[in-house]
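Here is this case:
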Amino acid sequence: MAKEKEEQKSSYSAKDIYVLEGLDPVRKRPGMYIGTTDSAGLHHLIWEVVDNSIDEAMGGYAHNIRVDLLPGNKVSVTDDGRGIPVETHKQTKKSALETVLTTLHAGGKFGGGSYKVSGGLHGVGVSVVNALSEWVEVQVSRDGYVWVQEYKRGKPQYKVKKTTKTDRTGTKVSFLPDAEIFAKIEWDLKRIVDHLRQQAFLTKGVKIEIVDQRKLPAAYQGFYFDGGLLSFIKYVTRGEKLIQDDPFYVHKELDEIEAEVSFLYNEDIETRELSFANNIYTPDGGMHLTGFRSALTRTLNDYASGEGYIKGKDENLTGDDVREGLTAIVSVRLREPQFEGQTKARLGNPPARTAVESIVGEAMKDWLERHPADARHIIEKCLLAVKARKAAKAAKDTILRKGVLEGLTLPGKLADCSSRNPEESELFIVEGDSAGGSAKQGRDRRTQAILPLKGKILNVEKSRIDKMLVNKEIKALVVALGTAIADSFSLENLRYHKIVIMTDADVDGAHIRTLLLTLFYRYFQPLITNGYVYIAQPPLYKVQRGKEFRYVFSDAEKEAAVKALSKGGAVVEAAEEGDEKTAEKKSGVSIQRYKGLGEMNPEQLWETTMNPAYRVLKQVTVDDAVAADKLFDVLMGSEVEPRKNFIQARAQYVKNLDI
């Protein structure tokens, strides 16, 4: 019998091969098509439908696009393009509309002359939306009539119907995401508005509207930009101290590749580069961005040499030198873009590099000659970056020696763990020597390392790397991590796969946490993107009655704990740890408010904040790198006015102000 069961378990024959038909593969593995089923994947449904309308706009057929957020989590996207064809498809024997909505890799983007360029190359956009929606209705205005078809979880409910007459053309797709696929269906208006604004910048001359009808009165926003990337670059750099009077801008086509590029330099040291291919954001860049960088570096070197700013190849500006303080936007449109990865993060077409490099190089040469004052300011900015680079190299050499990089000389204040396996090792960055002492005594010495910080580290947003590496606290952290920094950075040498920022739950603690996050975001960003950075959540209160107690993290949790433990007993507010005995004598519930980590003894700190079985850690992620970059500039940069405006605009939302 056991042998028979074993044979059944190991059966692998034709009957074990499952064929998923139609849209079943999408419902079975939605992550393969939309990346994830969380909020990002949910909003991707809107992007896919909007992309089809954008493709019509890029072809010159649509001039108006509207997105409506409707009650009950429904969404509709309407355009005035040509409308999806409705006649019978020769291959499928169904209407072309039904074919597009129910067949993967079906659409007008794979050949023929329907689209010169398109973003939805894979042809799975609207069919994936259909597969992952509880309900979809499509209305097509075409050939003098409105044609309608409805679907439920990807299945057509009837054949395409010809309804009322119309003199308009276009497509309206309405859908309700499927609760069986998405755990939480909640539309983020800001996220949608930001995406649509971006698309309006990239598709100049097209009006894009968003109407939120979930609550009355309905909220409306509309976008229309004739300037394209010229409008975009001014929007991105608003409020910054620019060193250029006029932005660089070029829009030209070469070898059937259309390139639109704009850039501006500011007084900051950070670099921002936004790249797009057929209106699709490519966060990892690709050939088009490489072409821009090559043209920028070569052209500025040629100009600097010709004007006598540099002499000889030994003094040439590097790519990093010319990109310091640069904000650039690169957009290309081309046939059959080759995106690397399902999320289309990087453009792989080599001709895109050649076209952008040629177009930008020629236009920049002319622009520099016509704007001598701006050209001088840019070159002076680059030469300042050269000096900083040389100073930074000297500073790095003082702490990134061979022995240090191999972990042979760790900072004395670091209480390291005994494990040498990064996957199980944790580094707690602790505020203050007092909390550091408790953490060192209460930790699991095998897997948990403690690095106490004295005071507040340098604000790296306002300082170059040479000044940064002189700071003792930052130097200790760099050495402890083992990754080195800047161009020497190596993620493979990271000594801990959990880096936990553990600070007090007050204003000073929040400030230190922000300074550390600024450091990680600017100089150790791969640690964040790979999910290695966490924030510890120490409890705010300890609620106790007799020997029974609970640690709670908010006022709401405190009230619930008091209610659960009181059972008619008195409640005694214990501001200090020693007051617990007084409360116990009265047979009441004591509430101890923790002012800081240093108040906890080693056992409490371990149990509440460091013990993997009970602790609460928040993983640091960056959903929108562009927004994060802008926010760090505002909050941590040297300019006071943007920070003042930010605080004033949000003052009304402050709930807990520690004064």
Q: What stands out?
A: The two ends are 75 Å apart (CA to CA). The longest helix spans residues 372-399. The domain at 229-395 is CATH 3.30.230.10 (Ribosomal Protein S5; domain 2). The longest strand covers residues 133-142.
